[in-house]
Amino acid sequence: MTAVFALATSLLWGLADFGGGMLTRRSPALTVVVVSQTIAAAVLGVVVVASSAWTQADARLWYAVAAGVVGPVAMLCFYRALSLGPMGVVSPLGSVGVAVPVGIGLLLGERPGPVQAFGILLAVAGVVLAGGPQLRGAPVQRQTIMLTLVAAFGFGAVMVLIAESSSTLTGLFLALFVQRLTNVVVGGAALAVSVRRGAAALPAEGVRVLWSALPALAFVGLADVAANGSYALAARSGPVTVAAVLASLYPVITALAARGVLKERLLGVQTTGAAIALFGTLLLASG
């Protein structure tokens, strides 16, 4: 079941990233993050009440709080790096965050077999190539590299933290709710500061656009929640090293979604990377 849950995570994260990318073309990225996470928190709040998940509260919830703090910071660093560019470097480099949960798994004594180890190498290499790395062009700013690495580490840390935030399914609902509430608080505070500085004020037309995009915002927020939940289940049901790598295939999903919906042509390196990643996935699943 590890492979099933982890691949579901990749699918959900990939679609959420694609939807979020589409929405940020019309609205400020921070606004999209805060609104989508607020919707997700509201839905999770209903689930928590209906399932009496609050009875599962314990010290593990601090992991969910930590994930809720780290997540928005990582996302803001990632968006800032994307704005500095080039995207062909930032996007694939951001996927190296998988090293965090994989490293934790190895420190805890997990030892994938030879087939799985080779599958991990292929999957990670394929994900980087699927991002369409820019191999030629102007030098990349050091600030861009640093911001991207901070974001990647943050993404990997969230994977580790959310996997440790509960020991039961209902406890997982509560943990995801707490994580989302923390996301909203941290992101909302950043948004308030931006608005005060005049950097993220939303004009009336922008408000109308945002209102019309509520279904899409709900999808992005809920897909992200579901991805976190399925990853926690994947990490709990099998080796973290396998779960983390399979869950990190989401850039491939995002690239394929852009190809199917926006008719974007994939670069040769992206097509090759997707094929390598999928082959690595088969090795992981079969091992």
Topology summary:
Elements: H1 2-23, H2 29-51, H3 61-84, H4 87-94, H5 99-107, H6 114-130, H7 142-163, H8 169-196, H9 204-212, H10 214-237, H11 240-247, H12 250-261, H13 268-286
Tell me what the structure shows.
The chain has helices at 2-23, 29-51, 61-84, 87-94, 99-107, 114-130, 142-163, 169-196, 204-212, 214-237, 240-247, 250-261, 268-286. Helix content is 78%, strand content 0%. The longest helix is centred in the middle third of the chain and has 28 residues, at 169-196. By secondary structure, it is mostly helical. The protein is globular and about 50 Å long. The two termini are 13 Å apart. The mean pLDDT is 80.
Spans where pLDDT lies below 50 across 5 or more residues: none
Count of helix runs? 13
Secondary structure tally: strands: 0
Helix content: over 70%
Shape: globular
Order of helices and strands: HHHHHHHHHHHHH
Q: How many structural domains in the coordinates? A: 1
Can you summarize the main beta sheet? none
Distance from N terminus to C terminus (CA atoms, Å) equals 13 Å
Average of per-residue pLDDT values: 80
Radius of gyration: 18 Å
Portion in beta strands: under 5%
Protein name: DMT family transporter
Pfam family, one: EamA
Domain EamA: 3-130, 145-284
Transmembrane segments: 28-49, 61-82, 115-132, 144-163, 169-195, 207-227, 239-258, 265-285
